[in-house]
Amino acid sequence: MRFALILSLVIAVVAIVFTLQNTAQVAVNVGPYAITASLAVVLIVTLSAGVVVGLLASLPSRFRTGQRAKKAERELATLRSSLQAPPAAAPAAAPKMVPADGTTMPPSTDAAETQRLAEEVAQRTQQTTGKQA
Predict the structure, then answer these.
(1) Buried b (16+ CB within 10 A) or exposed e, 29-47
(2) 18, 22, 102, 104: least surrounded by Cβ within 10 Å?
(3) Is there a contact between 27 and 34 (Cβ–Cβ < 8 Å)?
(4) Do residues 133 and 74 lie in contact, with contact meaning Cβ atoms separated by under 8 Å?
């Protein structure tokens, strides 16, 4: 974050110096129209248009990231509420959680594993939403 701010300030200073040094008039043809403006203005407008196009191109990705973060937050809330809620009726044989490696976990670690997963989801959600800001 701090690096991006410093980089933005350096680019702004360079743009100001560039504008002050390039005041020559140039003609730009846009379709049937001819526009005469300062070289610096033409380049800064072109750069700004490029930034806008880049932001518009990144919108779908940002939208998907936001949707995933909201889904993860809902799942986290569900997991937390299931941890806090008392069990309704204990079934005769409670299903055991089976990790990806196929080993079974003792029932005492089910709650701890669920809490660990909930914290991991919360951390990833925070990282994802933090990058957007």
Answers:
(1) eeeeeeeeeebbbbbeeee
(2) 102
(3) yes
(4) no
Structure tokens at 33: 């129209």
The answer to whether 48 and 19 have CB atoms below 8 angstroms apart is no
Which parts of the chain fold into alpha helices (H)? 2-21, 39-84, 108-132
Torsion 80-81-86-89 (CA) sign: negative
pTM of the full structure:
0.47
Joined tokens for residue 75: 């799942």
Is 58 in contact with 45 (CB distance < 8 Å)?
Answer: no
